[in-house]
Specification:
about 350 residues, alpha+beta, BirA Bifunctional Protein, domain 2, seven-stranded mixed β-sheet, elongated, binds phenylalanine
């Protein structure tokens, strides 16, 4: 009787499986035919009550039925799972254009600093660095700008508040010239360095004035470094940087840390000196200040007076960027507008 029942259960289970259409139905079927409390399960559990003869026969029959049903169950499950996939949705269009990964990049000013560094390194220069928060000594006094010197007013300064009035004053450096004395204190000529960096001026901002911008200082010192060396290095740099022939022009000027001092211009790289709105029809672009290092600066750095000669300049990286890319508002550089930054 039991044997017949086992065969019936097996056939019934297999039949019922044919009508199963969903995974949920399949789970209900599993409980009914293969679960621990299923009829077949109960038969298997009750085997211990039979004699060993019966156990052998019924056991093998019940286990066989279980195996057959389990196998049919696994096949149905695989079929239902496969049917539940929307293959149209899963289809991968290998010809579709890819999605670009959003990726940051260096700021235009940093890119140009690297380019400037590469050009100077190729001419035997070393890149030097100094702090943006600077002492009054390195930013002014060591450069022959004493507290009562009228030239202090040339650069509006962000002074830092100090807790102890008798101590040194600190400020945000107003030029990269502050690194000159720092470097010279620890190095003996001959040397040639450039110092790219951020500088700060306490002034009202407009399209051509910004409180934070970038400069690069150049300092070359030796026994007989002359204005001719200065002009050669400057011209070589600009022709390399703008990848075209560039004329340079020196105009007399004044800086306490150089003697003689120059305003430094290059022929307009946009109109090649013919006159355009960027050079205000003059054919020339103002790049920055320069000159032969004042012996007082050498003295402040601890060099003997008259032993060395050198030239120095402080040119605007931000200004060069504006010329190279025809950017008309200096405030765009540090404004943080990604639409601007992403263009470069
Ligand atoms: N430090 C000056 C400035 O920022 C530029 C300069 C540098 C002039 C070196 C002469 C020599 O205006």
């Amino acid at each position: 009787m039991l044997k017949a029942r086992i065969s019936t259960l097996e056939a019934e289970g297999k039949n019922a499986l044919k009508t199963v259409k969903t995974i949920a139905d399949l789970e209900a079927w599993e409980i009914k035919y293969l679960g621990r409390k299923s009829e077949l399960g109960n038969i298997l559990k009750s085997l211990k009550n039979f004699s060993s003869e019966e156990k052998k026969v019924i056991g093998s029959l019940a286990n066989g039925a279980r195996q057959t049903l389990a196998q049919a169950f696994a096949e149905t499950k695989a079929r239902l799972l496969e049917q539940s996939v929307d293959w149209e949705k899963e289809r991968i269009d290998v010809s579709a254009p890819g999605v670009a990964v959003a990726c940051g990049h260096l700021h235009l000013i940093t890119q140009l600093e690297h380019q400037i560094e590469d050009i100077f390194v190729s001419m035997g220069f070393t890149v030097a660095d100094g702090p943006e928060v600077e002492s009054e000594w390195y930013n002014f006094d060591a450069l022959n700008v004493s507290p009562d010197h009228p030239a202090r007013d040339m650069q509006d300064t962000f002074w830092l508040q100090r807790d102890e009035p008798q101590k040194e004053n600190f400020l945000l450096r107003t030029h990269t010239s502050s690194v000159q004395a720092r470097y010279m204190e620890t190095h003996t000529p001959p040397f040639r360095i450039i110092i790219p960096g951020k500088i700060f001026r306490n002034e009202a901002t407009d399209a051509s004035h910004e409180h934070t911008f970038h400069q690069f200082e150049c300092l070359m010192v030796g026994d007989d470094v002359s204005v001719a060396n200065f002009k050669y290095i400057a011209q070589a740099f600009f022709e390399n940087f703008f990848e075209k022939k560039v004329l340079i022009r020196l105009r007399p000027s004044f800086f306490p840390f150089t003697e003689p001092s120059f305003e430094f211009d290059i022929s307009c790289v946009l109109c090649d000196g013919n006159g355009c709105p960027v050079c205000k029809q003059s054919g020339w672009l103002e790049i920055g200040g320069a000159g032969m290092v004042n012996q007082k600066v050498f003295e402040a750095a601890g060099y003997p007076r008259g032993k060395y000669q050198g030239f120095a300049w402080g040119f605007g990286v931000t200004r060069l960027a504006m010329m190279k890319y025809k950017i008309s508002d200096i405030r765009l550089f540090m404004g943080g507008d990604l639409r601007f930054i992403r263009q470069f």
